[in-house]
Design goal:
Layout (H helix, E strand, L loop, with lengths): L1 E2 L2 E2 L4 E3 L8 H9 L4 E3 L3 E2 L8 H6 L9 E6 L3 H13 L4 E6 L4 H4 L11 H14 L4 E6 L9 H11 L3 E5 L14 H9 L4 E4 L5 H11 L3 E4 L9 H11 L8 H19 L1 H17 L6 H11 L5 H14 L7
Parallel strand pairs: 3-4, 3-11, 4-6, 5-6, 6-7, 7-8, 8-9, 9-10, 10-11
Antiparallel strand pairs: 1-2
Helix pairs in contact: 1-10, 3-5, 5-6, 6-7, 8-9, 10-11, 10-13, 11-12
This protein binds flavin mononucleotide.
The site of flavin mononucleotide has 22 residues, from loops.
């Protein structure tokens, strides 16, 4: 499949996750096999572009892979301006967010709330596509709620407006993250349009990835939460798709090395104080399902490390922890 001049073969893509897919995390995911990483969303509200939060999100320094930047908003002209602004700052693909269920976003009729207004969807997509030379992609849920699943209509609108690839999370907005993602709608979308379709939602293992790819006939897969604390999932899935064999999980030493690199990059981007705080949730994810035999030890370690405010101490504790643990990976 192609997104503009970028060619992929069954790509495994890192989903945009606000507060997670910042540049330190994207760097690691690219190193560990992701074909494409989508950045955290950037608001179309110009007055917020100068804030520290947006400035940090605009940072792509040292990133090796393709720079796909997600924008969020509701006004076609503002979104077009946001797209131009991000291309000027290095975006090579613009992704439009019509999938986010957060109240903060939906209350201003952005994110997945847009799915309820098909004419506005068409206006936004045409306006953004016309605004930039780089390819524009779209991310949606299957609809607003079970009674108004309109992913097929939206997909056709996207195709007509020149969208170059469509990611579909197999839940409605009303589902939030409850229940299980369904893939029937994604399969239906795939057979209804000729632009590339990317399947997303609850893809947590190489085996599930293969099953979803086969069931939906999608052109690629998008992984969100399963990559948290597990950036190895990209090469694990790709290896399984290519060989039907599972890669052995990373050894302690490697987990420690990757996590330590992640932490150093967080300190560098956010500064020591914020970096150490942001690192805590990532540390929690890295250790979460790895040491189930010693769940209590892991839990008391997590509590302990969450009290620490210095980068050196955080790194020292991590190194000691990994030297002591016997990995027992969750199935
Ligand atoms: C912490 C978090 C933040 C997210 N932020 C965004 C976002 O900024 N834009 C977006 O389109 N989706 C966002 N999502 C949704 C994910 O991209 C993805 O569609 C969803 O998590 C389902 O995929 P998964 O089951 O692989 O996690 C977010 C999800 C999580 C868990």
């Amino acid at each position: 499949m192609n997104i503009g001049k970028h060619t992929f073969n069954s790509p495994v893509i890192l989903a945009p996750m606000a507060g997670v897919t910042d540049s330190p995390f994207r760097k690691l995911c690219y190193q560990l096999g992701a074909d494409l990483c989508v950045s955290e969303m950037i608001t179309s509200e110009k007055r917020l572009w100068k804030t520290r939060k947006t400035q940090l999100r605009l940072n792509h320094e040292g990133e090796q892979g393709i720079r796909s930047v997600q924008i969020a908003g509701t006004d076609p002209l503002k979104l077009a301006e946001a797209a131009r602004f991000n291309v000027k700052h290095g975006a090579q693909i613009i992704d439009i967010n019509m999938g986010c269920p957060a109240k903060k976003i939906c209350n201003v009729q952005a994110g997945s709330a847009l799915l309820k207004n098909e004419p506005l969807v068409a206006d936004i997509l045409s306006s953004v596509v016309a605004a930039v030379e780089v390819p524009v992609t779209l991310k949606i849920r299957t609809g607003w709620d079970a009674q108004s699943k309109n992913a097929l209509n939206i997909a056709k609108i996207a195709e007509d407006c020149g969208i170059q690839s469509l990611s579909v999370h197999g839940r409605t907005r009303a589902d939030a993250y409850r229940g299980e993602a369904e893939y029937e709608t994604i399969a239906a979308v795939k057979s209804a349009v000729s632009i590339p379709v990317i399947a997303n939602g609850d893809i947590t293992s190489p085996e599930k990835a293969k099953a979803v790819l086969e069931y939906t006939a999608a052109d690629g897969l998008m992984i969100g939460r399963a990559a948290q604390g597990n950036p190895w999932i990209f090469k694990q899935i790709k290896h399984y798709l290519a060989t039907n064999r599972l890669l052995t999980p990373p050894e302690n030493e490697e987990v420690c090395l990757v996590l330590t690199e992640h932490l150093h990059n967080l300190y560098q981007l956010y500064g020591e104080l914020s970096g150490v705080r942001i690192a805590r949730k990532h540390i929690g994810w890295y250790i979460k399902d790895r040491y189930i035999k010693d769940r209590q030890v892991t839990e008391s370690f997590r509590k302990h490390i969450n009290q620490v405010d210095g980068a050196n101490t955080q790194i020292k504790l991590i190194t000691e922890f990994f030297n002591l643990q016997q990995p027992t990976l969750a199935a």
